[in-house]
Write a structure and sequence with these properties.
By secondary structure, the chain is α/β, with parallel strands linked by helices. The protein contains twelve helices and 14 strands.
């Protein structure tokens, strides 16, 4: 049985989520008090989890996932897409931790396992690892000295939203394995940022644990609990993450449910076909710190179509 570690400290009461989803006024009252930012205490706790300052959460906070872990969890097309990249292409790994997946890409072992596409490192794509905290090891620094300058980069101390599109440029492949897509409080804004960085024809590969699958027949992994990430419409019905992703303009989305994982996974390939991205807006109605956190969203007003090329997305998240 395959697993992606997760720590869930306490169950989330279903009645609270439903009440927040169905009542905008109640949601506002619950999430904002005395002018404080919504979910301030939970966000502080989440930040401390990132910095290893909360005892007990490390069991679910993984920073050393390998490229083999990525290939196993993500859609099969990910491995083929990565292997096809050339020296002018770029790969962004969000929530990269130690950057082990990128190191594996440049290793002799990768070439041995991909003999049909094996190429010298000078012919491989450039790769950027992104992490909130600096998790680099001596292996990363050693690899960097043996590769051509700027072949690999490691960005840290800032979240994705804090980088301008001009500073990051565009990428042909973006990955996120229990990174920002699982942790961000502002999921729709996160997707706008990712799609702004993705070149037309490129793909974003990501995964979520314990969500309502596209078919809608599965139940939450933990009995009596809710799904880890929920998106509800104004009527309070859970529409599912897959359905929401498929409503984004200018992308083609495939969703695959993997029930053999514990917790079960739904994995996604979001393929960008044009620049007029329109991401349906989500309002955050629940956020509870964890690894990853519990999140609840409500569909807001219809989105306005926005061009999110690398130059126009500078100030989006």
């Amino acid at each position: 049985m395959r697993t992606l570690k997760r720590f869930r400290p306490r169950p989330f009461a279903l009645f609270l989520f439903l009440s927040l989803s169905l009542s905008p006024c109640l949601a506002s009252a619950q999430t904002q008090s005395a002018g404080a930012p919504p979910f301030k205490d939970e966000l502080v706790k989440q930040e401390n989890i990132y910095r290893d300052k909360v005892e007990g959460y490390a069991v679910g906070y993984v920073t050393d996932r390998t490229l083999a872990d990525y290939a196993s969890a993500l859609p099969a097309d990910f491995d083929r897409s990565l292997a096809r990249l050339g020296p002018e292409d770029r790969w962004l790994d969000i929530g990269a931790g130690m950057g082990q997946a990128i190191l594996d890409y440049y290793s002799p072992g990768y070439d041995l396992s991909h003999p049909e596409t094996a190429k010298p490192n000078t012919k491989k794509a450039r790769a950027v690892a992104m992490s909130i905290e600096d998790r680099r090891t001596a292996f990363w620094n050693q690899a960097a000295t043996h590769l051509e300058p700027n072949k690999i980069q490691y960005l840290y101390e800032k979240r994705l939203r804090d980088y301008s599109a001009q500073a990051l440029g565009q990428f042909q492949v973006i990955t996120d394995v229990i990174g920002g897509f699982s942790y961000t409080m502002d999921l729709s804004v996160f997707m706008e940022k990712v799609l702004g960085l993705l070149a037309p024809g490129g793909s974003f590969y990501t995964v979520l644990q314990d969500v309502r699958a596209e078919a809608g027949t599965n139940k939450p992994h933990y009995e009596g609990d809710t799904f880890l990430t929920e998106i509800r419409n104004t009527a309070g019905t859970d529409v599912g993450v897959c359905r929401w992703l498929k409503s984004i303009g200018c992308v083609e989305v495939t969703c695959e449910y993997k029930p053999d994982w514990k917790p079960p996974l739904e994995v996604y390939r979001i393929h960008k076909v044009c620049d007029d991205i329109a991401v349906p807006r989500l309002e955050t109605v629940h956020f509870a710190a964890g690894t990853p956190p519990e999140r609840g969203y409500r569909l807001a007003t219809p989105p306005v179509t926005t061009n999110l090329t690398a130059t126009s997305a500078a100030n989006t998240k």
